[in-house]
Amino acid sequence: MGRTRRPQTAAVTVEILVIAAIRIVGSLPVLRWPLAGGVLAILVDLSDLLLRDTLDLGGVGDYQALDKWLDQVYLGAFLIVALRWDGRARSIAIALFAYRLLGFVIFELTGERAVLLIFPNVFELWFIVVAALGSTRVGAWSGGRSLFVLVSLTAIKEVQEWALHGARLFDGISSIEFLELVRQRLTGG
After folding, report:
1. Following CA atoms 141, 30, 56, 49 in sequence, which dihedral angle do they give, to the nearest 10 degrees?
2. pLDDT tens-digit map of 69-107
3. Would residue 55 be called left, alpha or beta, if left means φ above 0 and alpha means ψ between -120 and 50 degrees?
4. Domain spans of the chain?
5. CA distances from 3 to 10, 69, 166 (A)
6. What pLDDT was estimated at residue 4?
């Protein structure tokens, strides 16, 4: 699971500025509409791969670093909303945010993508669950039910983190090539 190569100096290109602006603006609706805004922020997070593969405005030198820094914007917006919750839903959200933030810091210090497997972004999924069901309802769950949900969300997120950062299944393929493969599978052609 080799170390990510980090350039000594990173040039800020127009492409990086466009991707950053879209990611930041895409994070803001969660402050008004937690569920819809949260889903939008996650979709916008995924869109930067397509933008990176279609824009030709100077490139993105270290995509993983840029992506993880921009993740902090939408995760911070999620945290602002989660701080309005009460009880167990809020406490778990804060703990999950802090755990992922620690992973982000270690990733930044080491450049090792495997760190992201140890610190999966379960906060994102927990946020969507609570935004969908409401903090009062989730706060009324038993400890066992909360644990079951957290273990389930962690399992889902670990599969994603493993595919992205452990096995690096998508490192050798562009988002456009991936979409073409999906289209071929769906249409049989």
Report:
1. 10
2. 999 999 999 999 999 999 999 999 999 999 999 999 999
3. beta
4. 14-187
5. 18, 18, 11
6. 46
